Amino acid sequence: MRTIRTTGQFEVAAAVSGRVFTVIERTEFVWAERFNGPATIPWRASFETAEGYALTPLGEDRFEIAALGVCVQRVASQKLN
Q1: What is the pTM of this model?
Q2: Are 55 and 48 in contact (CB under 8 A)?
Q3: Residue 27: in which H helix or E strand, if any?
Q4: Which of 18, 39, 53, 80 is buried deepest, with most CB atoms within 10 A?
Q5: Residues whose CB is less than 8 angstroms from the CB of residue 58 and which lie 6 or more positions away in sequence, other chains included
Q6: What is the spatial distance between Cα 42 and Cα 31, in angstroms, rounded to a whole number?
Q7: Distance (Å, rounded) from C-alpha 14 to C-alpha 70?
Q8: β-pair partners for 81
Q9: C-alpha distance from residue 12 to each of 17, 20, 22, 55, 56 (Å)
């Protein structure tokens, strides 16, 4: 049995236009039987924008939004005081 959970959220920006997207990370977990009982194991993650566009990881915090034909870079999160 598999379960999908939201495991993260961050922002990316397109270098050319400066447009910022909120990205939602979802991880698929697989149930496994261990010596001390059942457990979940993280399997694979998927990324999509809040608008529903899928992202393809390119490495080094870079992603491609193929539907828009744009490459984006993860931006540092700002902490509120």
Answers
A1: 0.82
A2: yes
A3: strand 20-34
A4: 53
A5: 64, 71
A6: 9
A7: 7
A8: none
A9: 12, 6, 7, 11, 13
